[in-house]
Amino acid sequence: MSSFSRDNFIRMIERRRPYRLPIDLSFAYSARRLVREHFGVSNASQAFDLDFEQVDLIHASGFLQSLPLKGVISVDSDGTPIGEVIPGDPETFDRMLTLTDCIHASERLAVGIISVDSIAASTGHGFPLDRNAALAREYCMAGADVIKLIDDALYATDPILWRGHMKTKIRGIVEAVRQPQNGTSSFLYYCEGDITGIIEDLIEIGVDMIGPVSPKTTPLTGAAQEYQEEIGFWGGIESDLLTGKGSAATIEARVKFLAQMAKNGASIVVAPDRLLGCDISWERVRTLARVVQSMSL
Predict the structure, then answer these.
(1) What is the reported pTM?
(2) What structural domains and CATH numbers belong to the chain?
(3) 127 or 110: which leads in pLDDT
(4) Cis, peptide link before residue 87, omega less than 30° from 0
């Protein structure tokens, strides 16, 4: 891929000042349909010229019926059923590779998604560690730039419970990928809750970034002051600003604040603090993308 987006992201991960802040937007499935209808493109990454695009094996056009899915494992934030891809199938890996190559050809970074789902793990219905580790390896071997480990807030907001139930699982996934033969991917641990109490554990494990950070979840200012030399931050934008409640001036001021933190040494990917739903304002989302992409560091 070319590579402004990738080079910019690598500079940030390596604790060098990027040329500008990277930006990512995650939409609930119902809102993704609105993006397609409103902009006439297949996803938000194309609509807003984002730096990241999900390797979406579940919902990618033409893939849904033929991939080896094993029932409904979880639901999207708007209640849409989500299947899970079983690793180890050659056809699945070939399509993963094809999608990743297409994302790179569009000069974006490819993001592989894995649900580590502590609720399912606590009831015995979660996927085994070896399966999640295998899926992470396949994403990495296919060229995914970021592997996003999505967890719920059941244990993550309670450090003692999280260390007892989840830390070994997360460590196993990271260690399975960090082998020379697998390629290079960065890990993002993503949990919509206050994970301040486990940041040091995630650093120890080898996670590269945490998110979403915002005043409502993991406060960015305090976390960055203490940990910015060791881990990066994904978030910083309150989703309410993108629903029409926030003005363009407020959005610009927030981006300037994040840019100043980046100049002071924090590694930040600009993103909302939750999945965006159907209540968003396209005008506000366009404003956010425009301000981030035009603001050099």
Answers:
(1) 0.86
(2) 4-294 (3.20.20.210)
(3) 110
(4) no
